[in-house]
Amino acid sequence: MGQYGILLDINLTTKEIKKTPVSKSDLKNFLGGRGLGMKILWDRIKKPGLNPMSPENPLCFMPGPFSGLPIPSSSRTTVVTKSPRTSPENKKYEHSSTVSYANMGGFFGPEVKFAGYDGIVVLGKASSPVYILIEDDKVEIKSALSYWGMGTDSFDKALIEKYGKEYQSCYIGQGGENLVPYASILNTAARAAGRGGVGAVMGSKNLKAIVVKGTKQPQLAKHKMYLELLEKARTAFREDIEGVEYWRSGGTAHALQNSSNNGTMAVRNYREGTFKEVEMINTKSARTQIWKRDFACFSCQLACKKSGFAKGAYGGVVHDGPEYETGTMLGANLLISDLAGLNKMIAICDDYGIDIITTGGVLGFLMEAREKGMIDLTFLDGIDLTWGNVDASIEMIHKIARRQGIGKIASLGVKALAQKIGKGSEEFAIHVKGHELAAWNVNVNAERMMITYATANRGACHLNSSSFSRQNNSAIQDSLGACSFAGGWYKNDISYRKFIEAITGEEHTDEEFNQIGERVFNLEKMFNYREGFTRADDKLPERFFKDAHTYGKGKDVLASHADFDKWIEKYYTERGWDLQTSMPKSEKLAQLGLEFTL
Amino acid sequence: MTHKETSRRDFLKKLAIGGGGVVILGKYHFLFGNEPTNGLLKAIVVDFDKCTGCRTCETVCSAFHHPVQIDGEQLNGLGNPKLGNIQVYHFNPDVDIPSVCANCPDTPCVNACPVTADPKAIRKSIYRDQLTQAIRTNHDVCISCGSCADACNTERTGVIKMNPKTNHPEHICDQCGGDPQCVKYCPFGALSFKDVDIKGAYFGLSPQEIAEKLFERYYEAEEVING
User: Fold this and answer.
1) How many domains does chain A have?
2) Does residue A54 sit in the same domain as residue A170?
3) For position A273, which CATH number holds?
4) I want to staple A502 with a disulfide (CB 3.0 to 4.6 A). Which of A222, A416, B125, B142 is the partner?
5) Is A228 within a domain?
6) Least CB-CB distance to A293: which of B63, B75, B94?
7) Interface contact flag, B93 A307, Cβ < 8 Å
8) Contacts of A483 in chain B (CB under 8 A)
């Protein structure tokens, strides 16, 4: 109950479209979203080493059991696939890579549920560009030739024009079409499943978009209980005026000022933790210079998305931003404090559909390598990439998204760039497992941030958190279709567990429920382990052991390798993982019902 | 007793206070619903500055108007937003337009209905409800000609649509019998239940027309992405 038990399975090579049943135990044990997506990935990828850009890589669009119900802040869709971004230190297979999961807000996931599916799995590769059109049970693969080459903004407009309000969509821009490995997938031209290269996998299938309209909703197990919980949840948000206002007034962008004050911001390619010019890009400046309106995802009371435009040389672009991660990675990390320029860079990246966090990491790395004389203007195709230079940054973004000249190698990320440049540049190539770090600096709160980044199953990820229990909880959230920003409201008598009982009828104990998150996390871990990722890959760049910040709260603060070894062993022990290999122990796997991974 | 019945009863009670109900009903003997009004008509009015496009209004409207029977009890449905009488239109650049029946005093929809009024009920297939003063439909006599939807679409908001399966008009706001759910649940205070003001800046306009006004208001610059 509460779920359909149906996946929409589409093979773009054979053009076969079918409904595949999902077993009751999978729905119970993995819920939906990130969890069920991971289970599908495990079931479909039978052997390690699959090329993520090959037709055989499943691309799963996963709403969760909350999706399609107006539970506050339940708009998220997780895209799950094998990552084209990550690689281990010692490649066991040519294409060893981790799992990738990226989630986006907006309206897409709920609509997939309305159409009658717990998820969409795309396999194969179309012979020419296509999009998938879903109207409840009617599913068509249609030519996208006339849309290929369009940026996400103009494509979004074209879809609104053609299909109108009843349809929701997600799509790639030229970044995904050009197979930029860190291409993203967008919904409403701004809300991105940004990380881990999910847009590149979509592009590799010649799939421009999925457009969906649905009229259904699944029957719930305990309808009345659900309505009572819903009323309570709505009230909890409504009554917490201050808590809600925090999100409405600035969203994650509030963290720009706070993080800089705390020395936890990525500044100058993570060399520093405080941005001296942060006032120029904080919420106060954005509210007066850029933001005009606040926007919410489906059934959300927080409205953390801000849209507007700037005036002047970089003006005229109506877009959302900056948020914390976009503002930090294209702002502070590059020493860019021109708010209009920053907003324009965000808009351009979203229009191409490339991950802003990674793009900012790549630009920061190149700026530092240039400053240190490791690369010259010729290497950069004549682009004068210096700290704070908006125009040069924009030129480089164009090169990356089009994969032209320097863009070819820059589109592979900082790990590949450091390998090409050498000269010790890998010390400031800020990535874990090939995936760039995400705007939160490490030195202050070193234990928390090092464990967060080192142990994330998709490679460096700021949403992973450091503790065993919070990681598990985050995996549950991503599996429900719930938004992490609203997680704090779901406690006590309106817990996620109770909502699941009302929706599906499954009465988990707290312990059983928390174990779902642990199960998801460990299945991801086993997938990575099978690909050849071990303890040696759970590591941070040398910068974080060598370069203390020169000012701010992180001044003279540095963790040692011995500290890190101690922390990671503590973490592995808590997880029930082997200290040498990092593999989950067989009794842990048995406890979680994951014996099938052995 | 269901929530729906309670609110309708409350509404009737309010009408009847001090004998006012009789006066109102006596004074406004709406024959075909196209008489002018002196401000006693009410409608859902949107403050576009506050709307964030969350679509809560669609879901609560849908849940209220499409109840389900569970163990012999009538409860709100799950609220598929498409079944809401209020509908939120999203545009790019970001503007969200909740579109809802304006309760036009001159009722182009009722005027266009070719069904001969039932002399007893004094009403056509689409009519102004004498108690609530909202526009209602009687599908029993509807001939599915679509004239009401056409009139609404060409002259006003375009909120009335013909249901492709039943071929009857839908999305007409009945104001939930006097306690509109969308107003009650809008998390942003963007909706209110107010006297109809035909001089209001957005009265009776289609979502597209309102969006164009708002584009100019919020984003006066021309868009030049990647320019």
Assistant:
1) 3
2) yes
3) 1.10.569.10
4) A222
5) no
6) B94
7) yes
8) none
A114/A52 same-domain check: yes
Structure confidence at residue A310 (pLDDT): 86
Asked if the structure places residue A538 within a domain, the reply is yes
Mark whether A128 and A172 lie in a shared domain: yes
> What is the number of other CB atoms lying within 10 angstroms of the CB of residue B223?
18
Per-residue pLDDT of B87-112, as tens digits, reads 999 999 999 999 999 999 999 999 99
Query: Is residue A230, in this structure, part of any structural domain at all?
Result: no
The mean pLDDT value for B48-52 works out to 97
The interface predicted TM-score of the complex, written ipTM, equals 0.96
In a shared domain, residues A427 and A320: yes
Q: Does B8 score more than 90 pLDDT?
A: no
Structure confidence at residue B25 (pLDDT):
35
One-letter amino acid at B186 equals: C
Among chain A residues, the shortest Cα distance to B93 is held by A318
Helix, strand, coil share (%) of chain A residues, nearest 5: 45, 15, 40
CATH of the domain at A131: 3.60.9.10
Q: Cβ of B52 and A165 within 8 Å?
A: no
A421 and A458: one domain? no
Q: DSSP assignment, residue A411?
A: T
> How many Cβ pairs closer than 8 A exist between chain A and B?
115
Alpha helices of chain B — where are they, by DSSP H?
3-16, 20-27, 56-65, 108-112, 147-155, 181-185, 207-218
Does B23 reside within a domain? yes
Regions of chain A with pLDDT less than 50: none
Do A462 and A508 sit in the same domain of this protein? Answer: yes
Domain region containing A45: 6-213
How far is B219 from B94, CA to CA, in rounded Å?
9
Note the pLDDT tens digit of each residue in A495-522: 999 999 999 999 999 999 999 999 999 9
pLDDT at residue number A477? 97
Among the partner residues B59, B73, B225, nearest to A70 by beta-carbon distance: B59
Could you tell me which of A397, A380, A420 has the C-alpha nearest to residue A175?
A397
Segments forming the whole domain that contains residue B99 = 3-218
Number of structural domains found in chain B: 1
A459 and A507 in a single domain? The answer is yes
Could you tell me if residue B225 is inside a domain? Answer: no
- Rounded to whole angstroms, how far apart are CA atoms B49 and A593? 51
Write the DSSP assignment of A258-291 as a string of letters.
HHHHHT-B-BTTTTBS--TTGGGTSHHHHHHHTE
For residue B39, name the pLDDT band (cuts at 50, 70, 90): low
Tell me, what's the pLDDT at B221? 56
pLDDT on residue B222:
53
| B224, part of any domain | no
Cα distance between residue B62 and residue B66, in whole Å: 6
Q: Which residue of B has its CA nearest to A165?
A: B89
Q: Are both A395 and A415 inside the same structural domain?
A: yes
Tokens of A394: 């924009």
Listed in sequence order, the residues at least 6 apart from A360 whose beta carbon sits closer than 8 Å to its beta carbon are A266, A326, A328, A329, A330, A333, A334, A439
- Distance (Å, whole) CA B106 – CA A444: 67
- Torsion A28-A31-A32-A35 (CA) sign: negative
Q: Determine the longest span between alpha carbons in chain B, in angstroms.
A: 67
